[in-house]
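Researcher: Quick test of sequence recovery. Tokens follow.
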């Protein structure tokens, strides 16, 4: 426990309950502090280090940043305690890595607006901490500070100010006495009467002249080259911001046994100003720059921008040359040992699931046991997405429910906290808040997409927003930015009580802009971009469904999705049943993608249900009807398939060429090869005519003509940039070559597998696997049966009849080559079962020809080039393989 949680303590009458501020690990951040602080100590103790060098780059600052509620203030407080004493360090952090000397002096300063901290108070806090630790004056700084105080606070003693502000109570009353001692010593050295009293101006003026004259009486102070300049400058706040140089110089003069390194923790840094008003930040940056022998740990919502060259003029010291450690991209702190980062910008990440559970278990305790049970902790952890603020708010909700007499249940936490919105929006400009709400509609975004969704004409606000820690960055993603998951869901679903909250009409307008912007990005692509297409479809479908938008460009994108035969998975609608055209389209495309992983009978059910809703516009209904007919054909339901294909072909729409190809396949299925051949010769590229010709030649055993046709089909697909069709043609080419040239087939199969990588084509993948069986047919390696059995089970799960027929054909070929008539007849029996209804009967004929067995009955197949040539071709393949 890091302290008492007073909010929780005052939320219940249960005095047996222990409410503590549970600090959870953050070991990775501690490792970074150890590594960077050790490096700093080594640098400032080197013989060549010069505290008065005002041109050397600075590496004396470490910045932690993260979203509101991530635990930055808790981390800052724990670091202060850990640096102050070993007893304040969490046990899991282990021992410190740095030497005992010089001593470390942690000084934590809260810069929150509510704390009322200004630069004067910051500097006084540091000096008071040193006064309490050292117990001695720091003359150069103390004299300059006294002069400043007399000018800026006439009539108010420093003692009164410190007592009123609470600083004296925290650090003691040593500073005024130490300052008076420094003044007295200097007055005596300059032979001025008394302790100077109100004659501070006389003393500093005389001292400045003595420094200019290099008088021996002030030789102890003469080593500070810029002391006289500061004494002669107008003692205002601007001059005060340069006094840290005197403090740094005095620290460097301390004897070895008194050496101390202040570690100054500046918390809530986001409250120092805005991007256009950096007055306090400018003064604080001077403090850091002028005290290179001190170490600063800054915690805030945003990264420190000091290394950005564009801030020149707003701040005194800018650019990567000045702050090399801050120029590197912010990285998450490591979770394991040995992961210190060389950069000085560290993103405080979310809690792990283990850390969340640990936090909740230790936050509320009764009789030594966690008050929140394990099941409820798991629910809260899952919903928190690792955000500590959500855990904190959940604890308060838990206590609120107990106060009403109820036992908190998982359902009580199935809601978001509006306070998350308030905390997230607290320090954003109006434009940034507007863009944040807009991009919460999107899974991911880039600057143009964010700007268009918000309806703005400039990207400046979006560019500022992406620097916030609740915006995550993935440089390899299609759109590189996305919101923290919990913050995104809260923005979209929680009651928004902020002054600029959106109405339902505002959300609808933003969704309309987002959908249009996605369509514009897809249409603007310089060429076919499958990744962009699928990304736009996924986001666009969700927007159209959630906000009941017109389909617009989604119809054209759906056609493009099906044209390539790639079938990346698309998300299923969350609704129980389609209610809009967008719902129906999402269900349609999801069914087409999922058919690669489901039995085709399930595909028939899904597509039939979509068509029955009547929600699809005509051209998309045509798409559903075509693929429904295709699924019927895969299942062997040729009557239903033929009826559907004829309807689509007769409509003369976009899928008419595909339906014509389907009818050609159905003619082949029925054994009517003359009709299939006549149709194939009219299909052209649109109907994939060369592939259909290859299928016809293959059935006739004319492997040379089949290979030529498949090669032409692959070339056409390459010319049209159709990856899916290219893979289909290559897989069939590999199967064809596997019968005639096993050596070449190995390379063709490997190429087919290469083309299929990244595609989701189940039937084509099965074809390539059958090809590999055919390639090894007749071999005596003993695993052919096992491989064919595994493939048979996989095909059965898919419901693809054509693949089952090809497999049994390969099995009969294998046994025919080996002369095993019994096994060949077993394969023939399986083929006979698959062709019971009369469809695909030519497979049974071909298998008899390969095995050298007579047909049981006259064939029903009408071959395209005569019945005599076909048996001879297939039998010759067996003979050649032997």
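Model:
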């Amino acid at each position: 426990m890091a302290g008492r949680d007073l909010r929780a303590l005052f939320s219940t009458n249960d005095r047996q309950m222990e409410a503590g501020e549970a600090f959870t690990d953050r070991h990775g951040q501690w490792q970074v502090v150890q590594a960077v602080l050790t490096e700093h100590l080594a640098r400032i103790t080197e013989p060549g280090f010069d505290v008065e060098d005002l041109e050397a780059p600075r590496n004396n600052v470490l910045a932690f940043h993260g979203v509101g509620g991530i635990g930055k203030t808790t981390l800052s407080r724990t670091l202060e305690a850990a640096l102050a004493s070993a007893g304040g360090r969490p046990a899991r952090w282990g021992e410190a890595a740095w030497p005992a000397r010089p001593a470390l002096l942690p000084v934590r300063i809260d810069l929150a607006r509510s704390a009322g901290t200004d630069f004067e108070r910051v500097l006084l806090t540091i000096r008071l901490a040193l006064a309490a630790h050292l117990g001695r004056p720091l003359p150069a700084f103390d004299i300059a500070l006294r002069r400043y105080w007399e000018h800026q606070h006439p009539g108010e003693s420093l003692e009164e100010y410190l007592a009123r502000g609470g600083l004296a109570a925290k650090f003691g009353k040593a500073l005024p006495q130490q300052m008076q001692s420094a003044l007295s010593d200097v007055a005596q050295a300059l032979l001025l009467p008394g302790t100077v009293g109100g004659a501070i101006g006389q003393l500093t003026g005389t001292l400045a002249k003595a420094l200019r004259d290099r008088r021996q009486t002030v030789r102890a102070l003469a080593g500070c080259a810029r002391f006289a300049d500061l004494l002669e400058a107008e003692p205002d706040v601007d001059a005060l911001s340069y006094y840290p140089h005197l403090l740094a110089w005095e620290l460097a003069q301390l004897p070895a046994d008194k050496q101390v390194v202040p570690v100054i923790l500046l918390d809530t840094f986001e409250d120092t100003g805005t991007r256009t008003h950096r007055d306090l930040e400018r003064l604080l940056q001077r403090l850091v720059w002028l005290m290179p022998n001190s170490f600063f740990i800054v915690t805030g919502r945003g990264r420190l921008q000091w290394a950005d060259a564009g801030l020149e003029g707003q701040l005194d010291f800018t650019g990567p040359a000045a702050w090399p450690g801050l120029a590197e991209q912010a990285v998450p702190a490591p979770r394991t040992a040995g992961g210190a980062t060389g950069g000085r910008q560290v993103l405080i990440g979310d809690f792990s699931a283990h850390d969340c559970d640990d936090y909740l278990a230790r936050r509320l305790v009764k009789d030594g046991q966690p008050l929140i049970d394990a099941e409820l902790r798991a629910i809260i952890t899952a919903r928190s997405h690792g955000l500590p603020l959500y855990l904190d708010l959940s604890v308060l909700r838990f206590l609120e429910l107990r106060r009403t007499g109820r036992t908190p249940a998982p359902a009580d936490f199935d809601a978001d906290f509006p306070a998350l919105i308030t905390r997230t929006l607290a320090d954003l400009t109006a434009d940034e808040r507007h863009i944040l709400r807009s991009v919460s509609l999107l899974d991911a975004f880039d600057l143009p997409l964010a700007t268009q969704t918000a309806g703005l004409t400039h990207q400046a606000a979006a560019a500022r927003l992406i620097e916030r820690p609740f915006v995550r960055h993935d440089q390899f993603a299609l759109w590189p930015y996305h919101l923290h998951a919990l913050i995104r869901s809260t923005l979209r679903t929680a009651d928004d009580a902020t002054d600029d909250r959106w109405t339902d009409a505002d959300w609808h307008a933003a969704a309309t802009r987002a959908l249009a912007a996605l369509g514009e990005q897809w249409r603007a692509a310089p060429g076919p971009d499958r990744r962009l297409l699928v990304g736009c479809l996924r986001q666009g479908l969700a927007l159209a469904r959630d906000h009941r938008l017109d389909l617009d460009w989604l119809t054209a994108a759906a056609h493009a999705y099906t044209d390539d035969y790639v079938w990346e998975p698309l998300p299923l609608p969350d609704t129980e049943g389609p209610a809009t055209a967008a719902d129906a389209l999402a269900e349609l495309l999801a069914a087409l993608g999922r058919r690669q992983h489901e039995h085709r009978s399930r595909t028939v059910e899904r597509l039939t249900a979509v068509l029955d809703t009547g929600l699809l516009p005509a051209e998309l209904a045509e798409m559903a009807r075509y693929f429904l007919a295709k699924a019927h054909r895969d299942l062997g339901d040729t009557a239903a398939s033929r009826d559907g294909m004829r309807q689509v072909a007769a409509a003369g729409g976009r899928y008419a060429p595909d339906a014509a190809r389907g009818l050609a396949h159905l003619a082949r299925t029925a054994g009517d090869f003359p009709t299939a051949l006549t149709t194939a010769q009219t299909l052209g590229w649109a109907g994939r005519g060369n592939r259909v010709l290859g299928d016809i030649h293959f059935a006739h055993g004319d492997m040379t003509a089949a290979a030529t046709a498949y090669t032409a089909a692959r070339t056409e697909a390459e010319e049209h940039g159709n990856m899916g069709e290219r893979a289909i043609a290559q897989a069939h080419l590999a199967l064809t070559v596997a019968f005639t040239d096993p050596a070449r087939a190995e390379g063709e199969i490997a190429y087919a597998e290469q083309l299929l990588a990244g595609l989701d084509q189940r039937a084509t993948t099965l074809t390539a696997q059958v090809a590999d069986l055919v390639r090894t047919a007749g071999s005596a390696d003993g695993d052919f049966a096992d491989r064919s059995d595994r493939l048979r089970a996989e095909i059965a799960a898919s419901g693809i009849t054509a693949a089952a027929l090809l497999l049994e054909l390969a099995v009969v070929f294998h046994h025919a080559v080996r002369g095993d008539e019994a096994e060949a007849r077993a394969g023939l029996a399986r083929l006979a079962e698959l062709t019971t209804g009369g469809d695909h009967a030519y497979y049974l004929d071909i298998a008899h020809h390969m095995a050298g067995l007579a047909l049981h009955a006259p064939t029903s197949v009408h071959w395209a080039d005569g019945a005599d040539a076909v048996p001879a071709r297939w039998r010759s393949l067996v003979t050649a393989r032997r």
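The chain has 42 helices and eleven strands.
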